[in-house]
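::Encoded backbone::
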Amino acid sequence: MIQKPNNVIRIKCPLDKTFFTYWLRFLEPFHSLTAREIDLLAVFLLTRYKLSKVILDDALLSQVVMNEDTKRQIREECNLSIAHFLVIMGKFKKHGVIVDNRINPKYIPNITEEKGFQLLFYFELDEQLQKSSGESSTGDEPVV
């Protein structure tokens, strides 16, 4: 049973690339991207967010975000060579950040029209579980 949060950290930030960078940094244990890769993905997420204001169909939105013109604009905004951009895109696909030519939904924050965004970490504490070499004894992975 999820209870009312007992620890709250308030972070003021603009709804721009900064927000998406913070979002991805909080999710670092689940994606292991480098700072440069986080930077690129943050721009993808910001672009997707801006486009979501005018494109309401999710499939069409994903198609526009991943089309060649949009990717070229993002690559130029991030000052990446074509080769470096392609290497990072390959890593995104290899690590499940991009699946079926779409950004994996677990990396897309669910931003509503409210003035804030909440991210809740729920740690299900069990003293019987023991860790060995960074993995749980049950083999379960964290759920995002």
Remarks:
- The beta strands are 98-99, 102-103, 131-132, 135-136.
- The chain is about 45% helix and 5% strand.
